[in-house]
Amino acid sequence: MVKRERITVLTAGENRSGPVLYWMSREQRVADNWALLHAQEEALVRQVPLAVLFSLAPSFPGATLRSYAFMLKGVEEVERRLAQWGIPFFLLEGEPTETLPRFVEEKGISLLVTDFDPLRVKRSWREGVALRLTIPFHEVDAHNIVPCRHASPKPEYSAATIRRKLSRLLPEFLHEFDHLVAHPFPWPYPVQPVPWSDLLSRLSPDRSVPELPGIVPGEAAAHETLALFIRERLEGYATNRNDPNRNGQSGLSPYLHFGQLAPQRAALAAAAGGEQEAFLEELIVRRELSDNFCWYQERYDQVEGFPDWVRKTLDKHRGDPREYGYAREVLERGESHDPLWNAAQKEMVLFGKMHGYLRMYWAKKIMEWSGSPEEALATAIYLNDRYELDGRDPNGYAGIAWSVGGVHDRPWGERPIFGMVRYMNYKGCLRKFDVPAYINRIAALE
Ligand code: FAD
Ligand code: FO1
Q1: What's 317's DSSP letter?
Q2: Residue 273 confidence class, pLDDT cut points 50, 70, 90
Q3: pLDDT tens-digit profile of 95-119?
Q4: What is the mean pLDDT of residues 270-283?
């Protein structure tokens, strides 16, 4: 049974008979998907057909060919996997607030289920659709192990405060998933296959950020990446994860971002592994703190979303002289005076995934070289969401807010520009890892 704490009734609606529809958005997978499991539970109780629908929005903020190509290959795999369970899949093009209510009416859907996502664009989609429904509309948190709304009723101050709440609740929520069954009530209408081959050309996403040849999209590849990490790199994660010269991170973020892997699955696999505390701290505490931030702080991508102490200290230092200042285009080309920063920017542009440790340094330097916190925030978000395959994610908005605006961090010694927001510098990196080796490695790959 899907736990009640995962389910939010967005609209009660009137009951009528008819199929159940899962509007898949964030959780683009068949296995380990609480939203899909809830939709099937409801369809079995009602003894009606079940279908899954993905709404392909042409203008997802910041998305380029890189992200759409990866995502659509994963969604195509979803269609193939669903067929094995007798569950049809539909892909609607256009804005969901238009296309979805029409589909619900045409097919006489009796219950609409969708997955939880704290981002603004998704809130507006859900609100827009809810306004035009007369049937029940349920939202299921299939991303957080402890459902976001249940873990805490407010924005958490730091990892420490949410960690206390999560660790109390994890024993109740970190368990094996229920299983999908072959759906016994067949879909009563003809199903046109999705025209996968010409979708991308019709979507015509920004091709200046090309696909990434080095990473295979989809649920199967996600599970292989997880298994490899657990087998070969979980053990050394605590020591290796912050060294850009070691392959110490899991590589899971693109799969988690597009919902091709359930964080709960990764946690279950790690918990059975070796030394997992450091990994679970990132995978559970840090990630679920990001959803908490974006859900309860609607201005998660604005300076107004920073804590009061930060806004005060940054205001005090607005007028400080900047030793360096770069236009966004110069930064985008990785042409600052700082070879380490340039290498990190190039790693992101070329491979779609900057090393986690360098993301902090990268964003803090943008803060140091921008004319204002507002400009720094906008530039970091623009570059992050344009080039990171795992971009356009609550983890990114929280990570950038931490770097630029001290969100989830504490006050540090006061200094120019940053005020009491934590500062990071080149010398600090030199102490942490072999900086020339990293710079040379990226230079050799260009
Ligand atoms: P691992 O170290 O293997 O971590 C495993 C998982 O734990 C990650 O996939 C992620 O879900 C979670 N995690 C790890 N570190 C963090 C963190 N600091 N905050 C939240 N969750 C974390 N992450 C994104 O998914 N998308 C982004 O756009 C993004 N932008 C960032 C920007 C900045 C300025 C900063 C400081 C961090 C950003 N992060 C972002 C968080 C983190 O850097 C990435 O999640 C991580 O590097 C992804 O690689 P991995 O999965 O191999 O990491
Ligand atoms: N979700 C959708 O439901 N429809 C889309 O067309 C869509 C496009 C998209 C493009 C890039 C990207 O990074 C994410 C995209 N998402 C889309 C959202 C994604 O599924 C995640 O839910 C959020 O980005 C993470 O919160």
Answers
A1: T
A2: low
A3: 999 999 999 999 999 999 999 999 9
A4: 88
Ligand closest to CA 344: 1
Helix, strand, coil % in the chain, rounded to nearest 5: 50, 5, 40
253 in contact with ligand 1, CB cutoff 6 A: yes
pLDDT for 58 beyond 90: no
pLDDT at res. 274: 61
| Residue 444 pLDDT | 96
Which residue's CA is minimally distant from atom 1 of ligand 2?
A: 25
DSSP assignment string, 115-135: E---SHHHHHHHHHHHHT--S
Ligand 2 atom at shortest distance from the alpha carbon of 58: 6
CATH assignment, 302-445: 1.10.579.10
The answer on pLDDT for 275 being more than 90 is no
Question: 3-state SS of 200-266?
Answer: HHHHCCCCCCCCCCCCCCCHHHHHHHHHHHHHHCCCCHHHHCCCCCCCCCCCCHHHHHCCCCCHHHH
Predicted TM-score of the model (pTM): 0.98
Atom of ligand 1 nearest to the CA of 252: 51
Q: Which of 224, 216, 236 is nearest to 269 (CA)?
A: 224
CATH number assigned to the domain covering 144-177+219-298: 1.25.40.80
Q: How far apart are the C-alpha atoms of 85 and 293, rounded to whole Å?
A: 36
Query: Atom of ligand 2 at shortest distance to CA of 62?
Result: 11
d(CA 237, CA 235): 6
Each residue of 282-340: pLDDT tens digit?
A: 999 999 999 999 999 999 999 999 999 999 999 999 999 999 999 999 999 999 999 99
Position 386 scores a pLDDT of: 97
Radius of gyration of the chain (CA): 22
Q: How far is the CA of 392 from the centre of ligand 1 (A)?
A: 12
Q: Where are the domains of the chain?
A: 4-143, 144-177+219-298, 302-445
List pLDDT tens digits, range 176-191.
Answer: 999 999 999 999 999 9
Q: Residues lining ligand 2, CB < 6 A?
A: 25-26, 55-57, 60, 63, 67-68, 71, 117, 119, 257-259, 392-394
CATH architecture of 4-143: 3-Layer(aba) Sandwich (3.40)
